[in-house]
Amino acid sequence: MNDDELKRLGQQLAEYCEKYLIPLPYVFEILNDQKVTPMTRGKAMEYNAYLLLREKLNAREWSIEKLNLCAQPGHPDEDISVTHKRTGVILKVESKSAVRGSMSCGTRSRICKEPHFNVKCHRSRSNIKLSGTSNDRYKEDVFDIILTNPLNALYEKGTIGECLELIRDRGILEVLYRHYNTESEKELLTECNRDWRFVVPPSIAIDGYIPRTPVVKLINDTNWFNIAALEDAMLRIVKERTGRGRLSRH
């Protein structure tokens, strides 16, 4: 950012605080509050996913829209709408963060004995109350694609300090440093933030529902794939919806 951009950002921040009656000298204390930060980071992940799709998908083939809709009772708050221009098929893409502190070597796990993390794929408590149901799982057809990365899994749960703390398990940290070929904590967090994965929900569904916190293997997962394969997967969904034998990429 240059000086003019920084000045504009500062002015926008001041105007925002004035609009919502936020005391400007304390705005960062408010943003750093442990009750506020998770919501801010979750919303930031949605926009990072939106920017990722704009970077990875062919703009001639796809129209990408970031949705900021208020969730209605019984209906999910959709993140991103992606339209295949030639057919008009609309895909619903959802970003879900990793479960905080869930990165594991797998040695003590009954489900996965390999390095892995979990993804938070269930409804929030407030959404459940509004929808009048006790089932916090999503049906497999609610989203067409779920995006995630392992970043949040690297942060320790239940810390009381102002800053997020890296997990303390040296065993899994050593695995991660080797896997991402990094040496510092900052480099590791940066690489994990770039390590986007995606899944087509029916491939992990159980009895028609997405698991609450599905497992993602660090290496060679058979359901969660590298973002490089996303466009081909989306084209397959479009082909299924339209009943066409083949859709070429241009």
Order of helices and strands: HHHEEEEHEHHEEEH
- Give the N-to-C terminal Cα separation: 35 Å
* Main pleated-sheet profile: 6 strands, mixed
Structural class: alpha+beta
Number of H- or I-type helical stretches: 7
Q: Please tell me what the overall shape is.
A: globular
Share in helix: 25-40%
Radius of gyration equals: 20 Å
DSSP strand (E) fraction?
A: 5-15%
Spatial strand order of the main sheet: 1-2-3-5-6-8
Mean pLDDT across every amino acid position: 89
Number of strands: 8
Describe this structure in words.
The chain is an alpha+beta fold and about 250 residues long. Helices cover about 35% and strands about 10% of the residues. The protein has seven helices and eight strands, in the order H-H-H-E-E-E-E-H-E-H-H-E-E-E-H. The chain has helices at about 5-20, 25-30, 35-55, 125-130, 170-180, 185-195, 230-240; strands at about 60-65, 80-85, 90-95, 115-120, 145-150, 195-200, 215, 225. A six-stranded mixed β-sheet has the order 1-2-3-5-6-8, with helices on one face. A two-stranded antiparallel ribbon has the order 4-7. The protein is globular, with a radius of gyration of 20 Å.
